Amino acid sequence: MAIVLVPSTDHARIETTDFLNFYVGATIVRDGHGRDLYRAETQQLVLQSILGYRAAEYYLHPPFEAAALVPLSFLRIERAFVIWTLMNAALLGLLPLFFGGCISFVDRRPYLGLLGFAFPPVLASLTLGQDSILVLFLITAAYLLGMKKCDFRAGLVLALATVKFQIVLILALLLLVSRKYRLIGGFVAGCAFLALVSVLVTGGPGIVEYFRFVHRFDVHNGYGNVNPASMMNWRGLLAGIGWEDHQRLYSAIGSVILIALGIVSSRWIRATENDELGLSLYLAIALAASPYNYFQDAAILLVSIFLVMDLVVRRRIVGIRAKLATLCCTLMFVWPIVLLCFGGHYFWNSRIYLVFPVIICFISLLAAELYSQNAVVRAPTVP
């Protein structure tokens, strides 16, 4: 990838990526204007200086991420994008080392850990210069630390994934009801540190302005704003089928139902001590119940897919549910490609919201498997 990308200087190609917004945020912080980071006019001035024309694009991620990306802003945007892409590719390349510690078939055949390079949401994240691969890597690292009983450190690592806080906070809630108290303690400590960094970047009023800025962005649909039909949640499904009336209310109800399912399932997870299946379910629920996500955010489901397939390989899921689990995991790879081939040239115009029903089937299947295993554990033994 380095051989292909390093000579690249295609400025027009970068103009269509999300990395452009990251670069704008990092540039504003580098220039000492962090207090104005979440002002539309401030971002527009920097964006126009890069593109040479006005564009409806905005940096919406937390302040601490903009501060972390400042070193890239010292490079020309073309070079910065290449470095960022290679960093993400390196994180993907490291996944076999991480999966090998907790997934048996990857431990035996490490090259299978590289299947992430064929996962459509991961490819979308690489193409767009998004940070979803970083979130995938951090969640994987946190899970591995949890497997090694280093729960507090796992929580600290998970806190770094709050660059996608709308997803990770739901995951943290589900881990809390699962009584992962030490992990949540580390998560809270990590979030407190990141909040302090964010305050240093923008100041106290800047944090308040951040949430106002995100809210204003969220309530408007259209170019340069939120496109619900590109999401893989209740909101995306309702927008995709043209159900506009009370869309937010019904989406919120659907999200609450999914979170409630996760809370109920936490009892089954504790009873069966099946943390692999539990995390797989929690990640899928956190993504599906999130009020804001896009196709590339589904990269985190790669962890769920690998964990579930490992349970199938080890025959801890058997029978018809094993076949259905395999089918769902396969559809996660194949169905987006089918939609892309027949629906449009890019994921945002290819009815990608139709992946959401597959995720719901995946969630239902995992919950049913946990319920079944819990029933077996609680069944009275015959003397």
Give the topology.
Blueprint: H1 2-5, H2 11-14, H3 19-30, H4 40-51, H5 63-68, H6 70-73, H7 77-99, H8 104-108, H9 120-128, H10 132-147, H11 151-160, H12 165-177, H13 181-202, H14 204-218, H15 234-240, H16 247-272, H17 275-289, H18 301-313, H19 319-343, H20 356-378
Helix pairs in contact: 3-4, 7-10, 10-11, 11-13, 12-16, 12-17, 13-14, 15-16, 16-17, 16-20, 17-18, 17-20, 18-19, 19-20
Q: How would you characterize the overall build of this protein?
A:
By secondary structure, the protein is mainly α. It has one domain. It contains 20 helices and no strands. It has helices at residues 2-5, 11-14, 19-30, 40-51, 63-68, 70-73, 77-99, 104-108, 120-128, 132-147, 151-160, 165-177, 181-202, 204-218, 234-240, 247-272, 275-289, 301-313, 319-343, 356-378. The radius of gyration is 21 Å and the shape is globular. It starts with a helix and ends in a 5-residue tail after the last helix. 44% of the residues are buried. The mean pLDDT is 89.
